[in-house]
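Bug #77: duplicate submission created two jobs. Keeping one. Sequence:
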Amino acid sequence: MSREERVRRLREISKATSRRERVRRKERLVMTVKVTREMEGRARALRAEQDAEFGRALEADREAERVRAEKGRKEEEARRAAEEEAGREREAREREEEEAKRRRERRKEKKEGLPEEPGKGENGVAAVVLRLPDGARVGRRFRGGERL
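Kept job's structure:
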C-alpha cells in the first residue's frame, strides 16, 4: 500500500471515527434531553399533585374552621339562652318570694285585726272549724256579737 493510500485510509478512518464520535455525542445529547424532559414532566406532575393536595387540605381547614365557628356560635346561643332562662327563673322566684311575703304580712295584719279569742265555757260563743285539703282541721272561737 502506498503512502497516499495509507493517508487516505487514515483520513477515512479518522472521518469514520469522528462521525461515530459525533453520532455518540448526539445520542448522548438526545438521551440527556429525553431524561431532562422526563424529569421536568415528573416535576410538573408532582407539583400538580402537591397543589391539588394543598387545595384539599386548605378546603378541609376551612371546613373545620367553619364547624368550629358554628359550634362556638351555638355554644354562645346556648349560654345566652341559659342566662336568660336563669334570669327568668330568678325573677319568678323573686316574684314568688314577694308574693309569699305579702301573704304572710296580710295574714299577720288579719290575725292582728281579729278580736281576742274567748276562753272555753263562756256564754254566747260560736266555734268555727275548717277542714283543710290536706285533712288538717283548724278551729277558732268567736263571741256572738263580734264582727269578722
